[in-house]
Amino acid sequence: MTIKRSIWMISFVMAFILLLPFHAIHAEKQTVYVIPVEETVEKGLLAFINRSITEAEEQGADLIVLDINTPGGAVDAASEIGKKLTSTELPVIAFVNKNALSAGAYIALNADEIYMTPGSAMGSAAVIDQEGNAADQKAQSYWLSAMKSAAEQNGRDPQYALAMADKDINLPDLGAGKGKLLTLTPEQALDVKYSEGTVSNLNELLEKFGYEDASVKTMEVAFAEKLARFLTHPVVVPILLSIGSLGLIIELYTPTFGLAGSMGIGALLLFFYGHLVAGLAGMESIILFGVGILLVILELFVAGGIIGILGLGAIITSFFMATDNYVLMGVSLLIAISIAIGGAFVMMKFFGKRLSAFKKIVLNDSMNTESGYVSNQNRKELVGKEGITITPLRPSGTVLVDEEYIDVVTEGSYLGKDVKVKIMKVEGSRIVVRQIPERMI
């Protein structure tokens, strides 16, 4: 019994020893999530970064690396990305792989540490409007405050972050004298402690942190996210709305539904799809848009105009519900409406088109004499005939013409009974007579 028990104990210990290394290797396997931050910073990128960070948290990642190469973009999207980066408990490293300009610099400053590649740049973060001009003071004040906070939260000197966004700050030693925005090279960033180091590539960065053997997962933008990034771009939004409005306007001038209407509806569907995927629009905005369209169609059959106004209001409101940039949406709608009005003018002025959509509900037939319609009996054949008054004409009365009693009026004078008259003209039911002067012998 003792020998048998000893054999079992030895076997159990050996199995435990053999399995222990594999268990330890599996337990120590580290995971790094690499999130590309490329092209323009906008709401589509925000949706992608939110999804990537959420997945990294759920999968228990050890490190997040932002692979940054962007010229900048929308301030509101960058602000939301910054909030997401600071809210996660996972360590985040900004890997400036060429350019982190404007909104890209702000995103980098929200990371726990920053590393740059040789020849890369970070800075030049002035806020501008849609036309490329300096934004108003309110927007500039907000952006300067955001840049300052991003630098301070990781113990960096805020004057350099402010110099990236304010050309009035004078830093000539860094090539950013008064009137110029600060853009840091890797060496300058290291000197002012805006970078923890310079690395040649991602592998070198991972080795620096001891993640050379880690499982690296590079997040990829899904097709739907790529499409959403394109469709929510500030330049694409007014184009989609313009195509949508112009297509529907042209369709109103054609007898059957065709290419123009399909393009218009397709453009509007792409607008809502992009904003839905980007997390900007909800189903409520799409439902409201549909209700607006139904109300406008109903207005064609119900007089009054109130239903049509409510429909147009619902449509415009649905567009604003699908975005958080109300200025951009307002400008986009003005452009779209102007193009639609211009298209309607061209169709009527140069092509002589009329609204085919209203032909079925608007009476276009003219009931005139040329078409064979008369409002009453026409007695044109009486003109020139003579008769005698049966009653005095004051100025209306009755005359006898060819043994027919006819109601007539004079040209304004009073005529007595048994006076010879001549019918001068017939205007509908109005027959005008004039006294025939007596012939002198």
From TrEMBL:
<dbReference type="InterPro" id="IPR056739">
    <property type="entry name" value="NfeD_membrane"/>
</dbReference>
<dbReference type="InterPro" id="IPR052165">
    <property type="entry name" value="Membrane_assoc_protease"/>
</dbReference>
<keyword id="KW-1133">Transmembrane helix</keyword>
<dbReference type="InterPro" id="IPR002810">
    <property type="entry name" value="NfeD-like_C"/>
</dbReference>
<feature type="transmembrane region" description="Helical">
    <location>
        <begin position="6"/>
        <end position="25"/>
    </location>
</feature>
<feature type="domain" description="NfeD integral membrane">
    <location>
        <begin position="236"/>
        <end position="349"/>
    </location>
</feature>
<dbReference type="InterPro" id="IPR056738">
    <property type="entry name" value="NfeD1b_N"/>
</dbReference>
<feature type="transmembrane region" description="Helical">
    <location>
        <begin position="287"/>
        <end position="320"/>
    </location>
</feature>
<feature type="transmembrane region" description="Helical">
    <location>
        <begin position="235"/>
        <end position="253"/>
    </location>
</feature>
<feature type="transmembrane region" description="Helical">
    <location>
        <begin position="326"/>
        <end position="351"/>
    </location>
</feature>
<dbReference type="GO" id="GO:0006508">
    <property type="term" value="P:proteolysis"/>
</dbReference>
<dbReference type="Pfam" id="PF24961">
    <property type="entry name" value="NfeD_membrane"/>
</dbReference>
<feature type="transmembrane region" description="Helical">
    <location>
        <begin position="259"/>
        <end position="280"/>
    </location>
</feature>
<dbReference type="InterPro" id="IPR029045">
    <property type="entry name" value="ClpP/crotonase-like_dom_sf"/>
</dbReference>
<keyword id="KW-0472">Membrane</keyword>
<dbReference type="GO" id="GO:0008233">
    <property type="term" value="F:peptidase activity"/>
</dbReference>
<keyword id="KW-0645">Protease</keyword>
<keyword id="KW-0378">Hydrolase</keyword>
<feature type="domain" description="NfeD-like C-terminal">
    <location>
        <begin position="380"/>
        <end position="434"/>
    </location>
</feature>
<protein>
    <submittedName>
        <fullName>Membrane-bound serine protease (ClpP class)</fullName>
    </submittedName>
</protein>
<feature type="domain" description="NfeD1b N-terminal">
    <location>
        <begin position="31"/>
        <end position="218"/>
    </location>
</feature>
<dbReference type="InterPro" id="IPR012340">
    <property type="entry name" value="NA-bd_OB-fold"/>
</dbReference>
<dbReference type="Pfam" id="PF01957">
    <property type="entry name" value="NfeD"/>
</dbReference>
<dbReference type="Pfam" id="PF25145">
    <property type="entry name" value="NfeD1b_N"/>
</dbReference>
<keyword id="KW-0812">Transmembrane</keyword>
